[in-house]
Design a protein that fits this description.
Radius of gyration: 27 Å
Largest sheet: 11 strands, antiparallel
Distance between the termini: 92 Å
Helix content: 10-25%
Structural class: alpha+beta
Order of helices and strands: EEEEEHEHEEHEHEEEEEEHEEEEEEEHH
Number of strands: 22
Number of helices: 7
Shape: globular
Strand content: 25-35%
């Protein structure tokens, strides 16, 4: 089990005051005059404004990840390296990304190149800086299957829904982050385990299976997902026919183009395009969204965080299914295979520019043009009053004439 002591940071959930809900104090556990929750039960609704970063020790090692194939990013990449080195941080950078870069001897001495597919950075990195878009942030998450260091994401991509910081204010943002003067959004991730022909049944709940652990079988593959898991029919012309279970109970059979299991963060991505509601990333939930279901009554649903979802190819299916994890690691699900999904205990800590709510509503407006339309013109009150009076008088005269004729 990876413990928080491996990292030099923690999330300060407002230790200077009691945890408060959005509506006041924590919900009462007293249920009427004679009932209450069990003593070991907890009921906490965390106030997003209380989630702030605090460094237990000064960060030493930083990871810098950049979007490839962009000359503008190349220029900023060098500036970020020089800035972080000037803060006495040792840097991890991807292999070959600095080979053609002119850097001072001091910078070169502070750099360590790594290979994402080979090297494990879990207990080495204290702080992450990304230069790119949402895909760059998701790539950074994929490098840490367990606990993730705080991420400072600069928007240099196409959309930038998850990357709130501008490179123009890079120096100020880095200073505030290193000083611990920023809020956090703890983005829920999904823990996904694929087992072949009931091999994962040896684990009662996949929350007990550490990511990367095989647990008596080398064929159990696990992934941590920021946005969504997509199960589809692949290249087959037939319907995707899969069985959906929640906490080992059969819920329904899914027939259609596929199924999306999404985090609240992913609710503004593929899930939104498939008709799901957009949810704030702090909401503890899992979204189940059908893709072109072969039933008009199959609508998206929201499940509580922590339940375990199991997906299996139906015995009556004419074809296999395919699963993709944040658009990567595409894997075929054959008859008898199982895909088990639950909420990961390791969220993605994304640093906020203004605050949880401000950043999210800002991204909705700027990136998705949420509820953008031309405003309705205001009424000319004087003209409207005269018109209403005239129409009312005309109506009364007409009614009087009708009564007279009668």
């Amino acid at each position: 089990m990876v413990t928080m002591s491996f990292f030099t940071y923690l999330y300060n959930l407002s230790t200077s005051r009691k945890s408060k809900s959005l509506y006041g104090v924590n919900p009462s556990t007293q249920l009427g005059p004679k009932a209450a929750l069990c003593q070991d039960a907890t009921l906490t609704i965390q106030d997003p404004s209380s989630q702030k970063l605090k460094w237990c020790k000064a960060p030493i090692n930083a990871l810098v990840i950049r979007k490839p194939g962009d000359r503008e990013v190349d220029k900023v990449y060098k500036e970020v390296i020089e800035l972080l080195v000037s803060k006495n941080l040792r840097l991890y950078v991807e292999e070959k990304t600095v080979d053609d870069m002119e850097l001072s001897a001091q910078c070169v001495s502070m750099l360590t190149q790594y290979n994402g597919e080979r090297d494990n950075l879990s207990d080495k990195v204290d702080f992450i800086v990304t230069l790119g878009g949402d895909g760059t942030l998701i790539h950074a998450s994929s490098l840490f299957q367990n606990s993730v260091p705080p991420i400072l994401a600069f928007n240099m991509g196409s959309l930038g829904f998850l990357t709130p910081f501008d490179v123009d204010g890079m120096g100020s943002a880095v200073d505030k982050a290193l000083a611990g003067e920023m809020s956090l959004t703890l983005r829920t991730r999904l823990k996904c385990v694929i087992g072949q022909k009931n091999e994962s049944d040896c684990v009662p709940h996949i929350k007990d299976l550490e990511n990367g652990q095989t647990h008596k079988s080398s064929r159990l593959a696990s992934y941590s997902v920021v946005n969504e898991v997509v199960i589809d029919r692949g290249p087959s012309p037939y319907l995707c026919h899969i069985e959906l279970y929640v906490d080992r109970r059969h819920i329904t059979s899914v027939q259609g183009d596929g199924l999306i299991i999404s985090t609240p963060t992913g609710s503004t991505a593929y899930a939104a395009a498939a008709g799901a509601s957009m949810m704030h990333p702090s909401v503890p939930a899992i979204l189940v969204v059908p893709v072109c279901a072969h039933s008009l009554s199959f609508r998206p649903i929201v499940l509580p965080a922590g339940v375990e979802i199991t997906i299996m190819v139906s015995p009556d299916a004419r074809n296999t299914a395919w699963a993709a994890f944040d658009g990567r690691c595409r894997t075929e699900l054959k008859h008898g295979d199982s895909l088990r999904i639950t909420t990961s205990i390791y969220p993605l800590p994304s640093l906020c520019k203004r605050g949880q709510l401000e950043d999210w509503f800002g991204s909705l407006a700027e990136c998705l043009n949420w509820n953008v339309r031309k405003s309705q013109k205001a009424l000319d009150l004087e003209l409207h009053s005269n018109t209403t009076t005239t129409n009312s008088s005309a109506s009364l005269d007409s009614l009087a004439d009708e009564l007279t004729l009668t």
